[in-house]
Design goal:
The chain has 179 residues and is of the alpha/beta class. The chain contains six helices and nine strands; from the N terminus they run αββααβαββββαβαβ. It has a single domain (3-177), classed as Rossmann fold (3-Layer(aba) Sandwich), CATH 3.40.50. The longest helix has 17 residues, at 35-51. Bound molecules: adenosine monophosphate.
Length: 179
Protein backbone atom coordinates (compact mmCIF):
# COMPACT_ATOMS: atom_id res chain seq x y z
CA UNK A 1 0.00 0.00 0.00
CA UNK A 2 1.35 3.43 -0.98
CA UNK A 3 1.93 6.35 1.37
CA UNK A 4 -1.34 8.10 0.46
CA UNK A 5 -3.41 4.92 0.86
CA UNK A 6 -1.85 4.20 4.26
CA UNK A 7 -2.52 7.73 5.43
CA UNK A 8 -6.16 7.50 4.29
CA UNK A 9 -6.64 4.12 5.98
CA UNK A 10 -5.25 5.47 9.24
CA UNK A 11 -7.16 8.73 9.24
CA UNK A 12 -10.49 8.32 7.47
CA UNK A 13 -13.57 8.56 9.69
CA UNK A 14 -16.12 5.86 8.86
CA UNK A 15 -19.61 6.62 10.13
CA UNK A 16 -21.92 3.67 10.48
CA UNK A 17 -25.52 3.86 9.27
CA UNK A 18 -25.15 7.24 7.51
CA UNK A 19 -27.06 8.59 5.58
CA UNK A 20 -29.22 5.47 5.93
CA UNK A 21 -29.03 2.23 7.87
CA UNK A 22 -26.57 -0.26 6.44
CA UNK A 23 -24.21 2.28 4.83
CA UNK A 24 -20.75 2.82 6.30
CA UNK A 25 -20.04 6.36 5.21
CA UNK A 26 -16.43 7.19 4.33
CA UNK A 27 -16.15 10.81 5.44
CA UNK A 28 -13.69 12.36 2.97
CA UNK A 29 -13.75 15.62 4.93
CA UNK A 30 -11.88 13.88 7.74
CA UNK A 31 -9.09 13.69 5.14
CA UNK A 32 -9.38 17.18 3.62
CA UNK A 33 -9.01 18.53 7.16
CA UNK A 34 -5.46 17.14 7.10
CA UNK A 35 -3.47 19.22 4.60
CA UNK A 36 -0.57 16.77 4.40
CA UNK A 37 -2.89 13.95 3.29
CA UNK A 38 -4.88 16.18 0.94
CA UNK A 39 -1.56 17.15 -0.64
CA UNK A 40 -0.49 13.49 -1.01
CA UNK A 41 -3.75 12.74 -2.83
CA UNK A 42 -3.33 15.69 -5.20
CA UNK A 43 0.25 14.59 -5.93
CA UNK A 44 -1.07 11.15 -6.91
CA UNK A 45 -3.64 12.73 -9.25
CA UNK A 46 -0.88 14.85 -10.81
CA UNK A 47 1.17 11.67 -11.43
CA UNK A 48 -1.77 10.15 -13.34
CA UNK A 49 -2.28 13.40 -15.29
CA UNK A 50 1.36 13.42 -16.38
CA UNK A 51 1.63 9.69 -17.11
CA UNK A 52 -1.49 9.62 -19.26
CA UNK A 53 -1.04 13.06 -20.83
CA UNK A 54 -4.45 14.18 -19.58
CA UNK A 55 -5.78 17.38 -21.19
CA UNK A 56 -9.10 17.84 -19.36
CA UNK A 57 -10.35 17.20 -15.84
CA UNK A 58 -14.01 16.28 -15.39
CA UNK A 59 -15.18 16.47 -11.78
CA UNK A 60 -18.30 14.67 -10.57
CA UNK A 61 -20.60 16.60 -8.19
CA UNK A 62 -19.86 17.35 -5.54
CA UNK A 63 -16.87 15.86 -3.80
CA UNK A 64 -15.22 15.18 -7.15
CA UNK A 65 -14.98 18.98 -7.48
CA UNK A 66 -12.71 19.21 -4.44
CA UNK A 67 -10.00 17.00 -5.84
CA UNK A 68 -10.64 17.79 -9.50
CA UNK A 69 -10.40 21.54 -9.00
CA UNK A 70 -7.12 21.48 -7.09
CA UNK A 71 -5.55 19.04 -9.57
CA UNK A 72 -6.75 21.14 -12.53
CA UNK A 73 -5.28 24.28 -10.96
CA UNK A 74 -1.96 22.55 -10.23
CA UNK A 75 -1.69 21.04 -13.70
CA UNK A 76 -3.00 24.11 -15.59
CA UNK A 77 -5.85 22.12 -17.11
CA UNK A 78 -9.51 22.95 -17.76
CA UNK A 79 -12.06 21.72 -15.23
CA UNK A 80 -15.49 20.61 -16.46
CA UNK A 81 -18.28 19.75 -14.00
CA UNK A 82 -20.76 16.90 -14.22
CA UNK A 83 -23.72 17.86 -12.04
CA UNK A 84 -27.00 16.46 -10.85
CA UNK A 85 -30.17 17.58 -12.59
CA UNK A 86 -31.12 21.23 -13.03
CA UNK A 87 -27.98 22.96 -11.82
CA UNK A 88 -26.12 23.84 -15.02
CA UNK A 89 -27.17 26.73 -17.28
CA UNK A 90 -27.36 26.76 -21.07
CA UNK A 91 -27.62 23.82 -23.44
CA UNK A 92 -27.38 20.57 -21.49
CA UNK A 93 -26.72 16.93 -22.31
CA UNK A 94 -28.04 14.39 -19.80
CA UNK A 95 -28.02 10.73 -18.86
CA UNK A 96 -30.64 9.11 -16.64
CA UNK A 97 -29.47 6.19 -14.53
CA UNK A 98 -30.96 3.73 -12.10
CA UNK A 99 -30.47 3.93 -8.36
CA UNK A 100 -31.34 1.15 -5.94
CA UNK A 101 -34.71 2.89 -5.64
CA UNK A 102 -35.71 5.24 -8.45
CA UNK A 103 -33.59 7.21 -10.90
CA UNK A 104 -31.09 10.03 -10.99
CA UNK A 105 -29.78 12.25 -13.77
CA UNK A 106 -26.29 13.56 -14.50
CA UNK A 107 -25.74 16.54 -16.76
CA UNK A 108 -22.95 18.34 -18.57
CA UNK A 109 -22.91 21.53 -20.61
CA UNK A 110 -23.16 20.53 -24.26
CA UNK A 111 -20.22 20.92 -26.60
CA UNK A 112 -17.67 21.63 -23.86
CA UNK A 113 -16.03 18.22 -24.38
CA UNK A 114 -14.09 17.64 -27.58
CA UNK A 115 -13.51 14.27 -29.20
CA UNK A 116 -9.76 14.82 -28.96
CA UNK A 117 -9.78 15.50 -25.19
CA UNK A 118 -7.88 13.07 -23.04
CA UNK A 119 -10.11 13.07 -19.97
CA UNK A 120 -9.55 12.30 -16.32
CA UNK A 121 -12.89 11.72 -14.58
CA UNK A 122 -12.53 12.46 -10.85
CA UNK A 123 -14.64 11.61 -7.83
CA UNK A 124 -13.92 11.03 -4.15
CA UNK A 125 -15.30 7.51 -4.08
CA UNK A 126 -16.65 4.73 -6.27
CA UNK A 127 -19.22 2.41 -4.71
CA UNK A 128 -21.68 0.65 -7.04
CA UNK A 129 -20.30 2.71 -9.94
CA UNK A 130 -23.72 3.99 -11.03
CA UNK A 131 -22.72 7.64 -10.99
CA UNK A 132 -19.36 7.07 -12.65
CA UNK A 133 -20.84 4.82 -15.35
CA UNK A 134 -23.54 7.40 -16.15
CA UNK A 135 -20.79 10.04 -16.33
CA UNK A 136 -18.86 7.89 -18.81
CA UNK A 137 -22.02 7.49 -20.92
CA UNK A 138 -22.42 11.27 -20.84
CA UNK A 139 -18.85 11.82 -22.06
CA UNK A 140 -19.24 9.16 -24.74
CA UNK A 141 -22.11 11.21 -26.22
CA UNK A 142 -19.32 13.55 -27.33
CA UNK A 143 -17.38 10.60 -28.78
CA UNK A 144 -14.76 10.80 -26.03
CA UNK A 145 -12.51 7.84 -26.51
CA UNK A 146 -9.73 8.54 -24.07
CA UNK A 147 -11.13 8.42 -20.53
CA UNK A 148 -9.16 7.62 -17.40
CA UNK A 149 -10.80 7.77 -13.99
CA UNK A 150 -9.51 8.61 -10.52
CA UNK A 151 -11.14 7.82 -7.19
CA UNK A 152 -9.62 8.50 -3.80
CA UNK A 153 -11.52 5.50 -2.39
CA UNK A 154 -12.74 2.34 -4.14
CA UNK A 155 -15.28 0.19 -2.27
CA UNK A 156 -14.07 -2.85 -4.18
CA UNK A 157 -16.66 -5.34 -2.99
CA UNK A 158 -19.43 -3.23 -4.56
CA UNK A 159 -17.84 -3.87 -7.97
CA UNK A 160 -18.32 -0.37 -9.37
CA UNK A 161 -14.79 -0.31 -10.75
CA UNK A 162 -15.48 -3.55 -12.66
CA UNK A 163 -18.36 -1.81 -14.45
CA UNK A 164 -16.02 0.94 -15.60
CA UNK A 165 -13.31 -1.54 -16.62
CA UNK A 166 -15.90 -3.33 -18.76
CA UNK A 167 -16.41 -0.04 -20.59
CA UNK A 168 -12.69 0.16 -21.31
CA UNK A 169 -12.06 2.85 -18.71
CA UNK A 170 -8.76 2.77 -16.84
CA UNK A 171 -9.22 3.15 -13.09
CA UNK A 172 -6.79 4.78 -10.71
CA UNK A 173 -7.75 4.56 -7.06
CA UNK A 174 -5.70 5.12 -3.95
CA UNK A 175 -7.40 3.38 -1.06
CA UNK A 176 -9.26 0.15 -1.70
CA UNK A 177 -11.57 -1.08 1.02
CA UNK A 178 -14.99 -2.70 1.48
CA UNK A 179 -18.26 -0.79 1.71
P1 LIG B 1 -22.01 4.95 -6.63
O1 LIG B 1 -22.80 5.60 -7.74
O2 LIG B 1 -22.77 3.89 -5.90
O3 LIG B 1 -20.65 4.48 -7.08
O4 LIG B 1 -21.80 6.10 -5.53
C1 LIG B 1 -20.84 7.04 -5.74
C2 LIG B 1 -21.17 8.39 -5.13
O5 LIG B 1 -21.87 8.28 -3.89
C3 LIG B 1 -19.88 9.11 -4.86
O6 LIG B 1 -20.02 10.44 -5.36
C4 LIG B 1 -19.69 9.07 -3.36
O7 LIG B 1 -19.32 10.34 -2.91
C5 LIG B 1 -21.05 8.65 -2.78
N1 LIG B 1 -20.95 7.45 -1.89
C6 LIG B 1 -21.45 6.23 -2.14
N2 LIG B 1 -21.21 5.37 -1.13
C7 LIG B 1 -20.51 6.06 -0.22
C8 LIG B 1 -19.92 5.73 1.06
N3 LIG B 1 -20.01 4.51 1.60
N4 LIG B 1 -19.26 6.71 1.73
C9 LIG B 1 -19.15 7.94 1.19
N5 LIG B 1 -19.67 8.33 0.02
C10 LIG B 1 -20.34 7.41 -0.69
Amino acid sequence: MGKAALAIRKNIAVIKDFPIKGISFQDIFSITRKPEIFKLIIQEIIKVIKKHKITTIVGIESRGFLFGAVAAYKADLPLIPIRKSGKLPGKITKVKYKLEYGHDIVEIQSSVVKKSDNILLVDDLIATGGTALASVKLLRKFNSKQINSFFVIDLENLKGSDKLKNQGIKIHSLYKTDG
